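$ ./design --mode recover --in tokens.txt
reading tokens...
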């Protein structure tokens, strides 16, 4: 059985992977647990490019293992697609999300609901021993809410409103979010492709 390394330092991504694919996640170790110490320069222009940069950086050190990586973020149409691939760094890497979310709400204060369209995107890249690789993507459409609401999820979830569910992704249970989320879709698609390989 090959080891599967998840190239992330984000605990919330790991938690959601465990919720989305509990059997698969039993086999997964983090890049820290694998002993990766280097820096990864996420300088790609797209989520897929950045996901592959992360996965291939780890795969270069651990060529015998399967490596997966997640690059994701929030794209807000009224802000020209921002924060997009800069979602983690947007308004400062160490700025609390409470503050980032408040600033976004302020910037959109004059924008009516129908123009507050946004989507979460998640690209998952996989590097296989032997040099093969692939990426898959998942998205979820929504609107930027008029207030911060909900305690669940992480990051931008308290301002991401899903019209069909009448709530933000932070108000959903983990199962409700994962069933429709960008990461749920991308991780399930990844597992299907990977199963064919395994
Ligand atoms: P790694 O690169 O180590 O995986 P990161 O947090 O830096 O961790 P990204 O560069 O992919 O990861 O940035 C993704 C950011 O997008 C993340 O920090 C959140 O702010 C946001 N994001 C992604 N998925 C989200 C979700 O499901 N709910 C809320 N915010 C999300």
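writing sequence...
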């Amino acid at each position: 059985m090959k080891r599967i390394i998840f190239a992330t330092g984000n605990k919330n991504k790991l938690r959601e992977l465990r919720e989305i694919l509990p059997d698969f996640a039993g086999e997964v170790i983090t890049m820290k647990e694998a002993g990766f110490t280097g820096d990864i320069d996420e300088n790609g222009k797209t989520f897929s490019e950045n996901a592959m940069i992360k996965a291939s950086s780890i795969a270069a050190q651990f060529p015998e293992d399967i490596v997966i990586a997640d690059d994701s973020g929030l794209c807000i149409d009224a802000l020209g697609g921002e924060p997009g691939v800069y979602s983690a760094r947007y308004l400062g890497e160490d700025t609390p999300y409470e503050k980032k979310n408040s600033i976004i709400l302020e910037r959109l204060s004059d924008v009516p609901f129908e123009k507050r369209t946004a989507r979460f995107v998640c690209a998952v890249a996989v590097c296989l021993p032997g040099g093969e690789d692939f990426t898959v993507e998942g998205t979820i459409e929504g609107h930027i809410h008029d207030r911060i609401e909900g305690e669940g999820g992480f990051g931008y979830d308290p301002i991401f409103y899903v019209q069909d569910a009448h709530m933000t992704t932070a108000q959903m249970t983990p199962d409700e979010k994962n069933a429709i989320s960008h990461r749920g879709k991308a991780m399930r698609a990844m597992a299907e492709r990977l199963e064919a390989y395994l």
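exit 0
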